[in-house]
Amino acid sequence: MADLIRFTAAETAAAVASGDVSAVEVAQAHLDRISAVDEKVNAFLHVDTEGALAAARAVDDRRARGEELGPLAGVPLALKDVFTTKGVPTTCGSRILEGWVPPYDATVTRRLKDAGVVILGKTNMDEFAMGSSTENSAYGPTGNPWDLARIPGGSGGGSAAALAAFEAPLAIGTDTGGSIRQPGAVTGTVGVKPTYGSVSRFGLVAFSSSLDQGGPCARTVLDAALLHEAIAGHDPLDSTSVDAPVPPLVEAARRREIRGMRIGVVKEFGGEGYQDGVVQRFQEAVELLRELGAEVVEVSCPSFTLALPAYYLIAPSEASSNLARFDAMRYGLRVGDDGGRSAEEVTALTREAGFGPEVKRRIMLGTYALSSGYYDAYYGSAQKVRTLISRDFDAAFAGVDVLVSPTTPTTAFPIGERADDPMAMYLADLCTIPSNLAGNAAMSVPCGLAPEDNLPVGLQIIAPAMADDRLYRVGGAVEAAFTEKWGHPLLEEAPAL
Amino acid sequence: MSVENLVSFEDALASYDPVMGLEVHVELGTATKMFCGCSTAFGGEPNSQVCPTCLGLPGSLPVVNAVGVESAIKIGLALNCEIAEWCRFARKNYFYPDMPKNFQTSQYDEPIAFNGYLDVEVDGETFRVEIERAHMEEDTGKSSHIGGATGRIHGAEYSLVDYNRAGIPLIEIVTKPITGAGAKAPEVAKAYVAELRELIKALGVSEARMEMGQMRCDVNLSLRPLGQEKFGTRSETKNVNSLRSVERAARFEIQRHAAVLSEGGTIVQETRHFHEEDGSTTSGRIKEEAEDYRYFPEPDLVPIAPSREWVEELRAGLPELPRLRRRRLQQEWELSDKDMQAVLNAGAIDPILETVAAGAPADQARKWWMGELARRANESGTDLSAQPITPAQVARVCALVAEGSLNDKLARQVIEGVLNGEGEPDEVVAKRGLAVVSDDSALGTAVDEAIAANPGVADKIRDGKVAAAGALVGAVMKATRGQADAARVKELILERLGVQG
Question: Would residue A377 count as lying in a domain?
């Protein structure tokens, strides 16, 4: 049997469906891999060995009974620890939720289970998805499989690292400001932020409700499409869920041609602060798009320069309210409840002990921005910027089918390098944030290694809301062309762990 | 609690003009909560009607209850409000253990209904109370503080929280400042809440039972010297939960404010607690500065945009409104304005209607509810509808009187028995042996004894002073503990003494 952990999700599903391999064997191979390497990588916060094997057995039983299996049945997956899982701990990378076992499944969790996907466990993340390096996890940083001394991106560093370390062929992330795409870029994997509202947020522990969006992470564009189709679609439990059909993503991913497509290069994403090797690989990718028959033009989105400050008002504002519920009354950590202290004191002590510094920083930022007398100047202005950004996108998409940019200005930086410099850390999401503010769809797909450090660079593709299929069409074509050019998938160049 | 120095109500009104603002919370009678599918049934085991959403568990999301929105629009329409074409929910952020998310999903500057009015009648005069807004929100859980002397959190050993109530839909109805009521301010406040309650019930959106907390009132009150335009500093008396209490709270605050102001003091802006026992209020939390709730639009919910067609459909379906219904009933019952007002003030319309529906004549039903029962409600400081007797039981008493089994005096005893928990009217009659005695042989002895004991009176009657017979009838009634048929007693007396009646 070939090395099961190196199968794509599509290959795994086909092998399970044909009976070449059992889902249990696949699950066990991945569990073994996790046992072997995760001490070094720290991609997982919780490995659900029993649950994974039981889910795999159920798939094998269904096959034995002759039932038809879905396109991802028996495929293992790493789930970001921000989605609730009934009976399995969910911490969001925070001390304050240590020991909490949710009594219910997120819609995404339920859809994965229904699809026969085998959930291996929960992955590490920046606390409450606040960060770009996974260093803000209360449970220690995750290493980038390309160089364990470097960050795997964030907040979904655990999910991306699990893919790059071959601990799972599929993962789920959430993208509030780039938390799927930036980790995808710096680990040489594929990450997609679906259109806002197209994947249910029910059971996604909220960081910033108007920006949060769950989405697929994979090693190939086709696998991402298969996973995306499995989790997307209207959910009556999420009022912001879009009640419209998901465009055919798998079909788009398989198309692998982009002749005649119009592609815009965002002028504002480049220049100072961008690593030379990142710019170089990006320009080569643009050249490749031309070679593939696309019409490439430069477009200007002047409001994008306001995106980062607007994001750091809106996201912390919503977070300050969303995280108020962690008060030690009903679940999670409780500190100082000695019988003599008031509820208020216990709440304060628990929040003091249970939240990390970045979470506290954002709660304070948000509380301030929403305060009476400051609301209009901060939260109100930021919402107006959001409108301007949406208009820039609308204007751009009037002339092009998709936009492209580097996913993040640099390759993976060393763990600790930006830990004490929040502004430097925030810049990692410079190119990804506009799509969250506008609610459209975006993907990061590998476009090579930066010559100066041999670390992965990501190409970001942005499509209008509900045109997620365009991401897969372009991404699939780029991936196929690069793989042909390189002679192998990029991840094969990653060092052995 | 200390009842502070008060000035008399009359003296207060001689110098000051009261300004009121009334905030009424109505719990809607929807089957499920505002943002989740949990039951709203009253009285369930604590924390048995909860789910991830109303417990505010991480990851949970709200979904708006369409019936809740419909109810809010109906209330808005009945209050002559404009209905927003587009409005949003907002988060009101503050920490409290009985609030699962530590924010309340409410509405802020975009209420679903605004700019309306409600006409109320006080002493036959119509008074228009202007409505600022009616908005949708969710209730909190219910805290019980154990171990303290007062049941309040201060001094308690520990507290328990029941989240069954958390997420039950509420409509908050806020008046504009009520000015110009003068000495009638307390009555206007009571009449407004009474009228609002009638309206809510007529709409069928809530039973609006104040004693069950389905309708709760905050009374904001300030005084300004007569002739002054600017409002004074207000106090906010929270959770005034009966019609009578609304009136008493307003009255007390007028007297208290006047006492403070007339001594040169200043009113502190604060919340106050109302005490049913003596009608006083005491200081609660002092609002040193306005609490900053950091309102912002609820990002987990999409805006509500009721179509004009739907709004007009709901307007067309509004039931007969209480004022019109009252006018109709007043005609049917042939009551004067004053009598009708008394019925309304006593909260007797529904008990009377239900008693009539159970078979009693309207005048009899009104007699009991407005007489004996209203008197007892007043004495005990409770609402008429809270009396432990049902309209069906009152109707049965009326029937027993009509068939001659009871006279008025006995009927009163039967009602007393029912109120004492002695069972159904027929059981009380049987247990207490309360039946009119008109049997001549039984009455004869009593009549003979009365004549023998009062020879002087008997002589007067024999001399033709028939009116004197009343004294002997009284003696017989006394001897039979009121059970005798008085008319028959008189006949027997005159018969025995050989006088023509």
Answer: no
